[in-house]
Amino acid sequence: MQKYHVKLSGEERKRVEKQLRSKKHSMESKRRAYILLDLDESQGTKLPTLKSISARRGVSEVTIYKTRKQYAEDGLDHVLARKKRETPPVAAKVTGEVEAYIVATCCSTPPEGKAGWTMQMIANKIVLDGVIESISDETVRLVLKKRRSNHI
Fold first, then answer.
1. Ramachandran region of residue 57, left (φ > 0), alpha (ψ -120 to 50) or beta?
2. DSSP-assigned letter for residue 137
3. Are 25 and 19 in contact (CB under 8 A)?
4. Which of 87, 97, 106, 152 stands the most exposed, by the fewest C-beta atoms within 10 Å?
């Protein structure tokens, strides 16, 4: 006996079918939509087995079980849409303070005997000044490009 049930209302079924017709949704999202339609008990037809759904949709039986469980616990919106990340996977190394220091260094007079700042010289200077632990010349270039500096 299964613990979780999928019974789509008429409106929910229309939303699922609309998502399947849409070109802006990922294949992962569409696969979950197909699984919901396969598991829908409100149609009154005999439900296919997990094995047959798994073979037809190219997913594991665990995925089908998790989709069913998520629908029962959280509703249709959580099944069809990906959860938005609250923080990026890696924190940004270059903060506004570091960017400001790069731009200020670029605009300052170059070291004695040099005609202008190179990206590597700026990177070395901000590391030596203790603004940041390490930075590449490419990152310096991208910061200056973002700020539309005349240096690059």
1. alpha
2. H
3. yes
4. 87
